Amino acid sequence: MVAEALSVMIQQERSLYRCHDYLRVNESSDRKHNAVTYDDRTQVVDWCFSFVDTLSLQRETVAIAMGLLDRFLSISSAASEALDDHREFQLLAIGALYIAIKTNERVAVHGNFFASLSRGGYSVEDIEDAEVLILTGLSWRLNGPTSLQVATHFLSLIHEQVSIAEDTWCFLLDEVQYQTEIAVRDYALAIQRRSTIALAAIFNAMERLTRDDRLELLTAVSSIIDKFRFASPAEVCATRSRLHVAPLDDFS
Known about the structure:
Elements: H1 2-13, H2 22-28, H3 38-54, H4 60-75, H5 79-83, H6 86-104, H7 111-117, H8 124-137, H9 147-159, H10 166-185, H11 187-190, H12 194-206, H13 211-224, H14 233-245
Helix pairs in contact: 1-9, 4-6, 6-8, 7-8, 9-10, 9-12, 10-12, 12-14
C-alpha cells in the first residue's frame, strides 16, 4: 500500500504537478524595476513560516502553500503580472497559504484575519479573489506531493528492515523534516522534483548518524530505491550539495 502510494506520488510530480523555472523566464525577459526576485520569494516563505508558527499550525502547510504558488506561477498566464508586481505576488502567496490551511489544517483561519494582518493592504475580497484565481489556474489540482510526504513514505518502507533505536529513528525523521523545510525556502530547490529533495534530505540526515546505523540504513535503501523512478544519482547528489549550502539566515 505504501509502495503504491509512493509510486503515485512520483508519477504525479512528473506529470500533473510539475513545476517549471518561472523566475528564470522572468529574468530573461524585459524586466520591470519591481520584478520579483529569488530573495523576494524567500522572504514570502519566511513570512509564511512565521505565520504558521505563531498560530501553532503545521510547517508542512507552508510547503503545500508554496507548492501551489510555484505551480501556479509556472503554468498560469496570470503569472506575468504577478512577477512584475510585488504586491500582486504577495497577495497570491497569501491566497496560496489560505488554501493550504483550508486543506491541511483542522482549524479555520478566515480571510478577514489575513486582511487585518495586511493593515489595509488587502481586503477580504482581494484574498478570496486570489484564492479563486489559484484554484482555477491549477484546475483544482491541489494534492501534489510534498518532499516530506515522499520522504516519510520512503522511510516507512525501510523502517521494518532496520533495527535502529527509536530515538535515533525520531532524530532521523526530524532532520529530514528540517532539510525539506530548508528546500522550501530555496527557489533552486523548490523547483526540483519533490522525490529528489526527499532522497537528498534522507541521505544528508543519515550523515549525522553513527557509522553502524548509517550502513544499516544504506543497505535497506539500496534494496528498494531501484523499484521507483527517482532522479539520477548525479541529480540527487547535486541536490544534497545544494541543501548543504542553502542560505539559512535566521531560519529555525
